[in-house]
Amino acid sequence: MRGPQILLLFIFVVCVKSVIQPTPTFGECTTDADCPLNASCDTDPTPDACKCDEGFYPYDSGVVAGGDPYTLCALCVCDPTDPNQCKGNGKCKVEYGQFVCYCKEGYTGKECETPITTTTPMTTTAMTTTKKGNVVPIVAAGAGLLFLALLGAGAAAASSG
After folding, report:
1. Which residue ranges does UniProt annotate as crossing the membrane (predicted)?
2. Could you give the angle at the alpha carbon of 38 between the alpha carbons of 35 and 39, nearest 5°?
């Protein structure tokens, strides 16, 4: 049962050989049927040429048909031969038959392009101290002084009289 292993090896070779071409189009076409799987006929350039669908990249299959290399479109997020693979923040590895980026700690995104920023919630406790003092003794002392003053004034008035 070597079928899955051969397919995985084929995809590995495809993606390793995959270098995004200077122009994203290849071959000539008149309809989508003239292009390989995961590609469509792009009518913008002249002559019309095949263009890989979004997320797929052109690669040379190594097959020559009619004197021309046969180009296919592979699903590859990253290229393990790229020295700056995964934006320099991860490693390009095979997962389920396709190349994907495994990000270093602190990075995320399809190509490890986004730094993870976290905010740690902080609980702060404000301590306030209010000096209320001893209100009752002060009021009592003031009332007592007032009482003595009045008592003294009343005694002075009685003795002078």
Report:
1. 135-158
2. 40
